[in-house]
Design a protein that fits this description.
Distance between the termini: 94 Å
Number of helices: 1
Structural class: mainly alpha
Radius of gyration: 28 Å
Strand content: under 5%
Shape: rod-shaped
Number of strands: 0
Order of helices and strands: H
Oligomer: single chain
Length: 65
């Protein structure tokens, strides 16, 4: 009985090592898309800020006229 438990434990350890490695590989593959998404969000925020600034400039010029 102990041999079977030890053998099952070793199989479980090997399986968990393989699963852990595959999970790590998947996570590493996913990281670039997170960076792209974050960069894209920052870019969109900058575009919104610039748009608001331009609108303020145009409105200030219209009010001065």
């Amino acid at each position: 009985m102990k041999k079977v438990l030890i053998k099952n434990l070793k199989v479980y350890e090997i399986f968990s090592d393989i699963y852990g490695e595959s999970l790590l590989i998947s996570f590493r593959a996913f990281l670039p898309s997170l960076r792209v998404r974050n960069t894209s969000q920052v870019r969109e925020e900058i575009i919104r800020i610039v748009s608001v600034i331009r609108e303020i400039i145009v409105l200030s010029k219209l009010v001065d006229i």
